[in-house]
Amino acid sequence: MISALDWIGDAPTGFLRLLDQTRLPEEHVHLDCHDVPTLWQAIKRLSVRGAPAIGIAAAYGCVLAARAGGPGLGPGADHLATSRPTAVNLFWALDRMRRVPSPTPQALLQEARAIHEEDRAMCRAIGEHAFAALQQISAWNPSGDRRILTHCNAGALATGGIGTATAPIYVAHERGLRPRVFADETRPLLQGGRLTAYELARAGVEVTLICDSMAAQVMREGRVAAVITGADRIAANGDAANKIGTYGLAVLAQHHRVPFLVAAPSTTFDLTCPDALSIPIEQRDAAEVTHPLGRCAAPRGVSVYNPAFDVTPAALITALVTERGVIQPVSREAVAQHLA
Amino acid sequence: MISALDWIGDAPTGFLRLLDQTRLPEEHVHLDCHDVPTLWQAIKRLSVRGAPAIGIAAAYGCVLAARAGGPGLGPGADHLATSRPTAVNLFWALDRMRRVPSPTPQALLQEARAIHEEDRAMCRAIGEHAFAALQQISAWNPSGDRRILTHCNAGALATGGIGTATAPIYVAHERGLRPRVFADETRPLLQGGRLTAYELARAGVEVTLICDSMAAQVMREGRVAAVITGADRIAANGDAANKIGTYGLAVLAQHHRVPFLVAAPSTTFDLTCPDALSIPIEQRDAAEVTHPLGRCAAPRGVSVYNPAFDVTPAALITALVTERGVIQPVSREAVAQHLA
To answer: Fewer CB under 10 Å: which end of chain A, C or N?
Structure first.
């Protein structure tokens, strides 16, 4: 099993070892962070990405910050908060680290390890619940020919454990079953090929890469048992914001009567959002579309529409899975009860 | 208006000028073919592509072949047939050229020009019929905010005229209306960005490039008046094979109540195919998926599924448009009547 990040050694002299995700899939190279500036750059450059993994990295970063001296956790912790200004988990982890009563490197490392371990356990619990739900809801046979289809990377590389959307796949694999997966490549940034196919193949899971536009065809051929994705934010009524392309997949799944599951930590729910309409959709740089992997694929100056996310309405989601269990059918009431 | 190919000069000394589509979108460079080997390479290398354009290029190539001497059109014409062994229009054009009674370069040029002109007229007729149909079926306002969405390239670059799917857009543009277009980038080969966005932008049409996975979102936002694509083959019942991703678009269009049109010459119908099941789907090289524009985006040796086409069932097609007119609703009987 691949690991996105690990603390190596003790608190006074140890360091944070990241798998440098900017080098994937061509090179499997670690980036060792012995100080805050190195880690700040690593987060900024997306060497470590995925909301849970960023939070854990920042928590370990506080050990590095405290070692560098200064009041409290030192100025390093504040600096880390500026590395990915929209990453909610980053702020959450730093806030929690700031609340460590006696912030010695030793105490901070203990807290960071606790955050990491909680994330690992959360992924594991999602995996167990989703593994059961997939078989119940979709009649998925984890050793059968029909595959799980996933989009983007909600995998081990995004978390401190076995991922969220990938978690039931790893659970099946660990039990000696032979789960088979379709990974959408996920334009524009191609996380499906670079990250999801990479981590699954490395773990020995049978994965087949497809372009996003091929998902409809493999569903039509009856080769998809269920679709499972992660989520970036889930509204109080169950509408789920996730990587662009998720919504279209959900429409296609409904058309082909393929169950559509969303797996995410319960902290992904934002009850201040009543529904999809209150989730703003970030527009990203045109170059992501016009220059895949840096190569020119469009005329100079062409207009581009590049929404980072879309929102899948609750009505298209067969079940939401968190570390607490399964929400099915998805409704405002069921969400409230689940989180109570 | 861009031109994929033109004969320059007279029969004894002239040459075929191709827009080298392998250099697009970065460079607008012509490739002048004075002999058969140069043209053979150009077809092979996809400097000219699109079924109608290949047929026209091969027809002009017969002038070059005859000039080189040998019996009939010379061995050059037979050689041209090997450049794209699955291109039906290529064989069709060569057969027609072989039937020229007295195959002098002059007579052959006249026949090639006739083939070119017929294709140009066919595109024009499709454009007029589709322009009317789009307004009637979809309430498309050619000067309005809601856009036409197209997939892959069934444009001027694929034909001897204004394309097929793009034809109504060019018709609207020529009339001083301001049609607006979404071009799907069309993975894996990115013809939407490299070719369709290029030719529309060059003609002054307002085009916005999106990734294939964004089509659902722009439909959901109510920004799409209609979808129009080309077709590679249409079965007797109206099922249409086209570039991978077309079928998924048709499902999404139905879900969002967006009319879905297919525009193609009447020669695209293959009445020996009763329906979609009898249309074989070619699998293409994994590298197209794993290495977009040559850059590595997937782990070494990963499994890939890369169907070149998919088939859109007639039930999802609002109307078929040919140079003869509009088939709506689409049924086996309506197709038979249209072609009678």
So the answer is: C
| pLDDT greater than 80 at residue A87 | no
Closest by CA position to A16, among listed A115, A124, A148, A135: A115
pLDDT digits (tens, 9 = 90+) for B100-157: 999 999 999 999 999 999 999 999 999 999 999 999 998 899 999 999 999 999 999 9
Model confidence pLDDT, tens digit, residues B265-300: 999 999 999 998 888 888 999 999 999 999 999 999
Contact present, B8 and B180 (Cβ < 8 Å): no
Instruction: Look at B297 and A185 and tell me if their CB atoms are within 8 Å.
Output: yes
Q: Which residues of B touch A296 (CB under 8 A)?
A: 25-26, 293
As a whole number of angstroms, the longest Cα–Cα distance in chain A is 62
pLDDT confidence of residue B14: 98
SS (H, E, C) B120-180: HHHHHHHHHHHHHHHHHHHCCCCCCCCEEEECCCCCHHHCCCCCCCCHHHHHHHHCCCCCE
CB contact under 8 A, A211 and B216: no
Report yes or no: B267 and B235 within 8 Å, Cβ to Cβ: no
Asked if A95 is an active-site residue, the reply is no
Give the gap in angstroms from C-alpha A283 to the nearest C-alpha of chain B.
12
Nearest by CB: B220 against A220, A245, A247: A247
C-alpha B117/C-alpha B168 separation (Å) is 18
A31's enclosing H/E stretch is: strand A30-33
Question: Residues 284..313 of A with a Cβ closer than 8 Å to B: which?
Answer: 289-290, 292-307, 310
Using a CB-CB cut-off of 8 Å, the residues of chain B touching A247 are 216-217, 220
Interface confidence (ipTM) of the complex: 0.95
CB atoms B304 and A185 under 8 Å: no
pLDDT higher than threshold 90 for residue A299: yes
Of A251, A293, A299, the CB nearest to B25: A299
| Contacts B305 to A, Cβ<8 Å | 182, 208-210, 214, 218
